[in-house]
Write a structure and sequence with these properties.
The chain is of the alpha+beta class and about 400 residues long. It has helices at about 1-20, 25-30, 35-45, 50-55, 65-70, 80, 155-160, 165-175, 175-185, 210-220, 230-235, 295-300, 360-389, and strands at about 75, 90-100, 100-105, 115-125, 130-135, 190-195, 225, 240, 250-260, 260-265, 270-280, 285-290. The strands form two sheets. It has a seven-stranded mixed beta sheet with strand order 7-6-12-11-10-9-8. A five-stranded antiparallel beta sheet has the order 1-2-3-4-5. Strand 3 (about 100-105) and strand 4 (about 115-125) form a beta hairpin.
Length: about 400
């Protein structure tokens, strides 16, 4: 009995220990260590403590009050930096704790001042998005010193050639579609330019066999009359109209994304958006891996139905098996010989079937046999009449 009580007590003790370990509370644990009070406070403010408490196994790297109190600074990447067009540190923002509950923001470029500060939090979705209000714009030195060129003044063909899209650029110039692009650029234009290798791929039609109208439609299909940067393409759900879209055909594109990859679909084949050549509102130019082939121009036509065979009259049967009615004649009184005796009745046929029945092959043969002597007799009688006269 004592052994049983001991076993039950040990089992209860182990269960209690497991429950305690799985139900840890990071703020309660750190509250017993005053040197981590600032770190513990930030865990509570940011709600990170709740996330830590849901983990069964975790290692927390804590900072003591001496390490966390001095003014801290960090550099954060902006979307401008992700475009690849930001020189130096212009694509980073400097975020600095100014103490007293103030946080300053400024460009990470050397010599920049923290002229903007945190005002309030507008909206937060933990671990996903946070919207903060700041006191004024963050301006990086040199960005606004010169006016940006208008989209229509951008040398599109030079940019395309430099990006490895010489064939596409040449087609735009020779067809005159480059003027359509330039006139649409100021209101918003997105260009999907196939690289030179894309035009050499299998399945690409021979452009020399296309009409001028088809080439124009093909090039118009590679642009949309709107500003659609990479981020917008990633979240696009509806079909995208192109410059070729009209009442005669849709000429639309659909977009799918997986992670940081964006793919365009024409209905014939996919094409991946490869690189950003230019992103300057309201103009953006991308390179794509394959030529975009619209179904309206290059869709596979349904296979033609097999041609019907000419309708012809049935071939006449041989006289031996089916004699023509015209040669069956009634017995003539001038016949020199009696009709041929009837043939034996085939097995299964009525014994008293009438002579000359159309359904009897034997009767048909008899008719042919009788008609020959009748004709000869008539012919001989006519000759005798002529000689006697």
């Amino acid at each position: 009995m004592a052994a049983l009580q001991y076993s039950l007590l040990l089992s209860f003790t182990l269960s209690a220990l497991v429950s305690t370990v799985l139900a840890h509370n990071i703020t309660d644990i750190l509250s017993g260590f005053p040197e981590y009070s600032e770190f513990n406070k930030y865990l509570t403010q940011t709600k990170l403590a709740d996330e830590i408490n849901t983990r069964q196994t975790i290692t927390v790297l804590a900072l003591n009050n001496g390490a966390i109190s001095p003014k801290g600074t960090t550099l954060s990447t902006t979307l401008y930096q992700t475009t690849g067009n930001a020189p130096g540190n212009l694509g980073f923002v400097n975020i600095t704790d100014l103490q007293g509950g103030k946080v300053g923001f400024g460009s990470a470029a050397p010599g920049s001042k923290l002229e903007s500060s945190y005002t309030k939090s507008v909206k937060q979705v933990p671990y996903n998005i946070s919207i903060l209000e700041i006191s004024q714009p963050i301006i990086a030195p040199g960005i606004l010193t010169a006016p940006a060129p208008t989209p229509s003044s951008v040398n599109m063909t030079a940019l395309l050639e430099k990006a490895g899209c010489k064939t596409f650029a040449s087609l735009l110039q020779t067809s005159g579609v480059i003027k359509m692009y330039q006139s649409a650029a100021d209101k918003g234009l997105t260009i999907f330019a196939p690289n030179d290798e894309a035009f050499k791929a299998a399945g690409v039609p021979d452009l020399s066999k296309l009409t001028n109208a088809e080439i124009v439609s093909l090039l118009q299909y590679h642009a949309t009359a709107s500003y659609s940067p990479f981020g917008s393409l990633k979240t696009s759900k509806d079909p995208i109209s192109t410059l070729a879209s009209n009442g005669a055909g849709k000429f639309d594109l659909t977009v799918t994304s997986a992670g940081d990859s964006v793919t365009l679909h024409t209905g014939i084949g996919p094409s991946r958006v490869a690189e950003t050549v230019l992103d300057s509102t309201p103009l953006v130019i991308f390179t794509v891996d394959n030529v975009l082939l619209p179904v309206e121009l290059f869709g596979k036509a349904p296979s033609p139905a097999p041609a019907g065979e000419p309708v012809s009259a049935p071939s006449p049967s041989p006289i031996a098996s089916t004699p023509a009615p015209a040669i069956v004649e009634a017995p003539s009184p001038l016949a020199a010989s009696p009709p041929a005796p009837p043939m034996e009745t085939p097995g299964g046929a009525p014994a008293d079937a009438p002579f000359g029945s159309e359904n009897s092959t034997a009767d048909g043969n008899a008719a042919v046999h009788v008609s020959v002597p009748v004709q000869v007799t008539v012919f001989a009688a006519v000759i005798c009449s002529i000689l006697m006269s």
